[in-house]
């Protein structure tokens, strides 16, 4: 485990915040139930400068779907990197899956934390380990959901970024994710909300700026929040047959 990740866990525990964020709520008996697990791109302001989780919950609620955004470091729904995901999807512990019953769909994403470079003591997670963690998380989610949907990591604008995130790294991590999840799914492509390609179709290949993202930042503008939420809602509702 990277030193920075261990320090975050120790700080969260010492501060009294739950390691895996707010507890998952009980399932609704008369509604379809969806669990959203994602990095800060999926969180709702004010927890981040721009995330689509709250907008997505509203779109699904309008169709009678009960959606909740679980997890994360502190509260607000940030799932962090796949190492924290491995802790918080452990079905024998208190995490995202600690709920009675089975979700109709779990929509999940990891990547931007795994590919970030936080310094010499906390380099990006190696691609093979990222893929191995994702596959393990995916199989755990399958035990608690009728459908599991992977969300590709949103692009990183091709300009200098905090924590040395790069456009090319996002391409590589998405490729590893698809390969590892296909293998974990018995050779079949996983159910997918392809936010990467949705953004690229709008912003262009190797874009340096886009109206969907904040300048030199991976987080979203108001237009980006609406765009990502609509993309995710469309794929989720289609998968649920709505």
Low-confidence segments, given as residue ranges, are 1-17
Strand coverage percent: 5-15%
The helix-and-strand class reads alpha/beta
Largest sheet report: 5 strands, parallel
Compute the number of helices.
7
Shape: globular
- The level 1 CATH classification is Alpha Beta
Task: Tell me the helix content.
Answer: 25-40%
Q: Which value, in Å, is the CA radius of gyration?
A: 17 Å
Q: Which quaternary structure do these chains form?
A: single chain
Please characterize this protein's 3D structure.
This protein is of the alpha/beta class. The chain has a single domain (3-239), classed as 3-Layer(aba) Sandwich (Rossmann fold), CATH 3.40.50.1110. 37% of the residues lie in helices and 11% in strands. The chain has helices spanning 3-15, 53-61, 82-88, 127-142, 167-184, 195-203, 222-239; strands at 32-37, 65-69, 103-108, 145-151, 191-193. The chain has a five-stranded parallel beta sheet, with helices on both faces. Helix 2 (53-61) crosses helix 7 and helix 4 packs across helix 5 (167-184). The longest helix is centred in the C-terminal third of the chain and has 18 residues, at 167-184. The radius of gyration is 17 Å and the shape is globular. The protein starts with a helix and ends with a helix. Mean pLDDT is 87; it is low at 1-17.
